[in-house]
Batch of 3 targets.
Target 1
Amino acid sequence: MRRRKSGIARRTPLKIATAAGIALAATLAATAGATAEPDAPSPRSGADSTQHVEYFTGPAGHPRHTEVPAPDPLTTKERKAAADDGTVVPIVQNGPVGSKADVVFVGDGYTASQQGDFHADVRTKWAEVSAVEPYASYKNLFNVWAVDAHSRQSGVSGDPTSDVRKDTALGSAFYCDGIERLLCVDTNKVEAYASKAADPDLVIVLSNSTKYGGAGYNDITSPSGYDGIATASSDNEQSSQVVVHETGHSLGKLADEYVYEEYGTYTGAEPWESNISKLTAAQLTAQKKKWYRWIGQSSPDGGTRRRVRGRRLLPARPVPPDGQLDHAHPRPGVQLTRT
Ligand SMILES: [Zn+2]
């Protein structure tokens, strides 16, 4: 699908489609007809900058956030190597490019002779991701592509231990910034490969590994049009839930819904994300904002959709306690904490 190419879309309140009952579907509907805007700057890079990443320490844990060093810009040689490498292989086709959300998987840690394994892993991973709502109900809105990247060595760095180093096309590595389950990647190399696909909306790096891990680079706005990159280990089913969670941010434009008491209480302007609000249930209903249509209805995670008190994750700094944020729209892969 054609989408806005700047970060503006991420901070603009989404128009909730009248027929769609799920935020992700609303996003797809709202962005489907958007016209392209001038290209956004390249993803941040350079030795003096950092990237914000989200990760999980284990399948049952809450997401955490940290800053990791940004990769250096690609050299001419690296750019050429990526350009000369990699074939784009269709995995699932539900319609012409541009008419659907195009999911692009890029493989890392697969040698030239393992590309068949990569394609099989893409099918498996997509099956695991799309088994989760809202993907399950909207499967036919997606095309899925595999972009081959030939790594010199099989497997990825940091698997199983921190001293393991592998020469791979995208530089996937566990123990990123010393955190075992944080699976980082060179996002500039990812861009070089993902941009081979015609219209990438969602980019997932599959790192050839059985070890649990992943990462969400949700602050990236790519020149190719996608917002954010999710990484996951290819042969670990639990890692698929990392992808589901991170694409809730990058594609669904949804905020986290869990509580870190140390962040204090949000006191800023009405958030742009469609699943959180400062308004009460009565105000949402009166003003016909956000999830007002579903207040009082049963929720896919059990219980009743209603006003739920909680606190937004505030990644920057704590704010003084004063009035709470209300949010009640569950999303896939997110632990909704009700207080
Ligand atoms: Zn999150």
Target 2
Amino acid sequence: MPPPARSPAAGARRRALIIPLMLLPLLLLLHLTSSPSHPPLPPTRKPSQACDYSAGEWVRDSPAESSPRYDHTCKEIFKGWNCIANGKANGRDLLRWRWKPSGTGCELPRLDPRRFLERHRNTNIGFVGDSLNRNMFASLICMLRGVSGEVRKWRPAGADRGFTFLRYNVTVAYHRTNLLVRYGRWSASPNGGSLESLGYKQGYRVDVDIPDQTWVEACSFHDVLIFNTGHWWWAPSKFDPIKSPLLFFEKGEPVVPPLLPPAGLDLALEHMITFVNKAMRPNTIKLFRTQSPRHFEGGDWNEGGSCQRNQPLLLEEVEEFFSLDNNGTNVEARLVNQHLIKALEGSTFRVLDITRMSEFRADAHPSTTGGKKHDDCMHWCLPGPTDTWNDLLAASLETVER
Ligand SMILES: *[C@@H]1O[C@H](CO)[C@@H](O)[C@H](O)[C@H]1NC(C)=O
Ligand SMILES: *[C@@H]1O[C@H](CO)[C@@H](O)[C@H](O)[C@H]1NC(C)=O
């Protein structure tokens, strides 16, 4: 359970009210001369503890309410994800849906970029994971740059990319890692070994207890980390189970008998959760984002699958796509989550559950406009649903005492 909420903003407002009025001009002067970028936190709809933001429905917003939070000129948008610039027919229309959590009176507030920067002043926030976490990172950067353009672009602590918002001293970085753990090509040694004696000739060596170099330093650098992994564990085209299987190693030795990827994922998660708990300072915040669903119809990505929807899926369609019983093309979303939830149970990680809300959004992938030979029904248009993931992130961080 998350700790009980307390609102620093509410305290500040109360104090502000009892300050004698005569002091106001002086305070204003001090305020103007000392720190122009230090206004009190604007009041905002507080996210409520009682609300479960992961369950709900997408409702149509009026055009006025659904103004884009940033536009296609944000430079951090990877080319293939820029659905508006690339002319995706519903590139603008897909923004007109708002996530409505199911509890009575529950609303997921939109991330307020100014408030976010103010609240996280002097904080380092890192995304660690595959390209879907980069997608979420890019969304956050675009939102924040809209209100605070003075940035330093750099690569902190081994990051693939990162920005410091200079007026607030907030750093947001992306650390690229496919499996979280270290892996590389493996081929049979002429001197033999336990894998060789089982007939393995080549594959990928995956060290389940060694974090990928790209994020080792992230643990001591960042105050908030958002992890993900999943797609690469279920990527037979990359890690063909016959031609190039994942071969798991622990303490430098092959795990024998060899494990299938789902069991390897369990081991890797167990080790990485332990590693992060040791490596991060106390009072840091660890979040694990659940699996991002894909929406391939009529075949997988390399079988001509596509996602030509103009609206979110209906409830029945979501079940058809993702229910484990149906074992459809995109079934890995819920499968991966089973492994994540099991591994995170009883840990100090918070779960950022974006799967359900995203399952509906078959309309929000780059599709044929992704600039690849095949349709992209895996990444998300920007602006798009990962903006809502960041709303959830902001709401989750609001409930943490700092
Ligand atoms: C900026 O934030 C970092 C990370 O919290 C901190 O170490 C550093 O002292 C801050 N710099 C300033 C000038 O406040
Ligand atoms: C699910 O489908 C895949 C491929 O279509 C198949 O290889 C696998 O055996 C199926 N799994 C179950 C539990 O039916």
Target 3
Amino acid sequence: MTAPSPAALVALKSALGDGGWTDDPAEIAPWLTEWRNRWHGHSPLMLTPRSTAQVAAAVRVCAEHRIAIVPQGGDTGLVGGQIPFGEVLLSTRKLRAVRDVTPLDDAMTVEAGITLLEAQQAAAAADRLFPLSLAAEGTATIGGVISTNAGGTAVLRYGMMRDLVLGIEAVMPDGEVFNGLKRLRKDNTGYDLKQLLIGAEGTLGVVTAATLKLFPVMRSRATAMVGLDAPGTAIELLARARAETGGGVEAFELMKRIGMGFVLANIPDTREPLDSTPPWYVLIELVSGEPGAADSAMERLLTHAFETGLINDAAIAQNEAQRAAFWKVREEQSAAQKPEGGGWKPTSSRKPPPPSNVSTPVPGSAPSATSATATSTMTSCAPLAATARPSSPAGRKGRRSSTTSSPATTAPSPPNTASAGSRPTRRVVTSRRWKSAPCRPFGSRSTRTGS
Ligand SMILES: Cc1cc2nc3c(=O)[nH]c(=O)nc-3n(C[C@H](O)[C@H](O)[C@H](O)COP(=O)(O)OP(=O)(O)OC[C@H]3O[C@@H](n4cnc5c(N)ncnc54)[C@H](O)[C@@H]3O)c2cc1C
């Protein structure tokens, strides 16, 4: 990579104008660290464009001067791809418009810098569902979840981000704008270029906006935590759940005892979700468009699983507080690993990624693959040193309610209101008690035997 020359930096500042950049090390510093403190980067300049045209202007200057860019959204990525190591940092946080929400064709077009949560809220305000959901959704941006091809917790029913994008607008490495904001579902014309940009982690261009698929709001939702002896049982249970509910499984999250232990030890306001302490847990969420139908489907599924000896402990959430508590022990799995110093990563991914892996390539340089994402191997290591940066990604302000018939009242912020300097605050921790009412054990040993 060529280090940005003084002339290039002057040209970039001039292209974006006042308020579109900062070279103040104190302002840039919070955006140079991955939130688990595993990677610490450096950059001479942070750009904060407010429009696609400004992104294009910046990329054109970089192409002319043959310098590299690292695009960054919410800085929640877990493999360090958003951290610059000498490159210009291009933050999309000010690309904030919800361009349109059109329930009649179940689609909406939003700019890259709005958060995933804001996208969900924009859909809910039109009585539609944008289904991608993950623990960092209060901070992760649409551009980021597209660029990492995020999966989240509803993949089984709705697919990955790759399945949820109808069209993309992006600035390519020469500064040209690729306008692929299509919304036609049955589109069989030629190459599907947007699919190259999804999951590319900024190596092929800067995503500036996307047209996303919307879905009907589900009218009932049932959530259960099940204890299991082995992952094989989970596979059997998942197969049954899918067959018996006709595709009603929205989430099926397998967790190991060690991860649960980290959550219980390191995250306030959490407690063991079941009476027993099984080696494996699975959080199941069933949904239906019919009011009440998800609850009866969950009862049938667990009764059958119990009677056939597949499971021996489970609890169904009886209210939103219990449901939130079940999700909390799932969603805090990443944050709970931070104080332990370990991660569900291969040892090789623990090094800072080389700069060429994370940059938008200048014309003529071949894009390279970014660092690998998680594998299932737990590596133990020494605790990482704490740094001054205290923040974690903001998560859900509360998961979608069990019956999401009421549109959310919180509208996304208007365009161009994000402040480049404002850091996400620490993840919202619910002040509710874990159990405001007893959870209903579903055929746990103690319940069945009365012991
Ligand atoms: C607590 C937690 C839970 C998570 N749970 C899940 C989960 O369940 N499933 C799952 O799949 N993932 C999960 N993730 C990972 C999550 O998908 C990513 O952190 C998120 O998608 C990144 O979004 P971001 O806006 O923060 O992007 P950043 O972290 O800023 O960037 C991520 C990558 O995308 C690139 N990029 C960002 N914006 C753009 C853009 N506009 N154009 C081009 N490139 C861009 C960056 O250069 C970088 O390579 C989780 C993360 C956290 C912190």
